[in-house]
Amino acid sequence: MERNRDELVFVPLGGVGEIGMNMGAYGFGPERSRKWIVVDCGVSFAGPDEPGIELIMPDPTFLEENAEDVLGLIVTHSHEDHYGAVLDLWPGFDLPVYATPFTAGMISSKRAADNIIDDVAVTLMRPGQPFQLGPFTIEPISVAHSIPESTGLLITTPIGRILHTGDWKLDATPVGTSPTDVPRLQQIGADTSLPLALICDSTNALKEGESPSESEVARVLEELIAAAPYRVAVTTFASNVGRVISVARAAQKAGRRVVMSGRAMHRVTGIARELGMMEGIEPFLDQDAFKELPRDKVVVVCTGSQGEARAAVSRIARGEHPAIDLNAGDQVIFSSWAIPGNEREVIDIQNMFVDRGIEVITRDDKLVHVTGHPRRGELRQLYSWVKPQVLVPVHGEPVHLLAHAKLGREQGIPQVVEARNGDLVRLFPEPMAFPGEVRTGELYLDGNILCTPDESGVKGRRRLSFGGHIGISLAVGSNGNVLSGPEIAIEGLPEVEDDESLTSVIRKTVSGTLKSIPPKRRADTDVLVAALHKAVRGEVNAYWGRKPNVTVFVHRV
Ligand SMILES: [Zn+2]
Ligand SMILES: [Zn+2]
């Protein structure tokens, strides 16, 4: 890179090579003195490989190192993978967050619900109203997605433009939110004064065709609810306000009242109502109203579409919900899909309903859910409108990014740059990726503590989950004679009744080991600890077929 030349660069810090924890930085200026803006600050959810971890976030070290030149954060929409880490990572920067009114409402209500002390200063932004941050002019553009007020960003600098799509789809008839602003996208393509780089959602780049409209889902829900003989419960993502509106409209048409259950859903629809997004929708009844309503006069809308054990639909399935109970002949609609990793939990809940004679309707049966991301037909449409010189596929696992890159090349986009988290991508001039230029990684939220995977105890927790733990404690006199113990504590190992017990195996091993060491050597604590540790691990391995975690305490008296 030439040192004094202005360059426009993109640094993905999360979400490129994985689905989740989206965060990216755009830099402008000569290499030594660039100004940066940050787009999105999301989380991923931990899986069984990260026991005890609530959330995973991108490592912001790169931004911290450049903090003096960072100008602000722009949040495209309030899905967790885009805004979930704002209140954890951004307060440290003491810089403004730009967000639409709905996203701003979601940030402040999350802060209240989670009792977060740190705060961020939010500046409201609106589609079609550009604002300036240093050398960047940023224009939010309405895009349809599965949450209100999703935005793409047109970022203009003196040497080139960026269209950062955010999560989007083409839906001419979305519910409760604006359609994608196609005329504006066409204008962007018609303007040839500056080259354009497209940083684009790859989630559905493997899927041919176009995603159905939210209005089609609304029609299907309306038919189902109109035809249902008894109660209907619908579970969906709490943030999908459009879907909740569709259910509410269908219920009203069928002369049914809507009972809502789930704190997150009350919270999100409360924000939507305050912002005037629910005109004509009767107030939702709280769950306590359920028992007063006849079986054919109610629709329950509830949380838990991902199988979360404590959420409403799971409690209803187990018959443990404090206010809501379903019977044989009632229906439950899963107006959602199971995010990979949650499938088992969701199927378990569906099985519980089926076992009780309650009908389960999923997206495999009827069009009760649509994706919020563009399929290949929609991607082609976007390319044809905005005519990018450069495409960088983002928001996807490697297979999605690759499919998207191939599609871009097939469609004749001159430069397609395949990037990963931590690369530095020069967009203009001369597009090129410089792999691994920037420190990236993950931070775990472990209880209240934000730490790197190495700092976290997760490795040890995983080890414990396979090997359990044996603690052995004994007191030894100065001449090497055992004065008390051994005390043995066992956690997480098998105890089989008809076999020789594990405890007795450990006891025998300890006493055998002690006997085998001459008293003089026994006086050396380290020798004793090492010998017991090795012997117990070995003998338990012979007995169990697995090596336990062993801690030996020798007290000198
Ligand atoms: Zn999204
Ligand atoms: Zn997303």
Topology at a glance:
Blueprint: E1 7-14, E2 23-29, E3 35-39, E4 44-45, E5 55-58, H1 61-65, E6 70-74, H2 80-83, H3 86-89, E7 97-99, H4 101-113, E8 122-124, E9 131-133, E10 136-143, E11 150-157, E12 160-164, H5 182-190, E13 196-201, H6 214-227, E14 232-235, H7 241-253, E15 257-261, H8 263-274, E16 285-286, E17 298-302, H9 312-317, E18 331-334, H10 343-355, E19 359-361, H11 376-386, E20 390-394, H12 398-410, E21 415-416, E22 424-428, E23 432-434, E24 442-446, E25 449-451, H13 458-467, E26 469-476, E27 482-491, H14 502-516, H15 519-522, H16 525-544, E28 549-556
Parallel strand pairs: 3-6, 6-7, 7-8, 12-13, 13-20, 14-17, 14-18, 15-16, 15-17, 18-19, 20-21, 26-28
Antiparallel strand pairs: 1-2, 1-22, 2-3, 4-5, 5-24, 9-10, 10-11, 11-12, 22-23, 24-25, 26-27
Helix pairs in contact: 4-8, 5-11, 6-7, 14-16
The structure holds zinc ion (2 copies).
Please describe what this structure looks like.
Helix content is 30%, strand content 25%. It contains 16 helices and 28 strands. It is of the alpha/beta class. It has three domains: 7-209 and 371-451, 4-Layer Sandwich (Metallo-beta-lactamase, Chain A); 214-361, Rossmann fold (3-Layer(aba) Sandwich); 468-556, Roll (Ubiquitin-like (UB roll)), CATH 3.10.20.580. The model has no long low-confidence stretch (mean pLDDT 95). Strands 8-7-6-3-2-1-22-23 form an eight-stranded mixed beta sheet. The chain has a seven-stranded mixed beta sheet with strand order 9-10-11-12-13-20-21. A six-stranded parallel beta sheet has the order 16-15-17-14-18-19. Bound molecules: zinc ion (2 copies). One zinc ion binds at residues 77, 79, 82, 145, 167, 372.
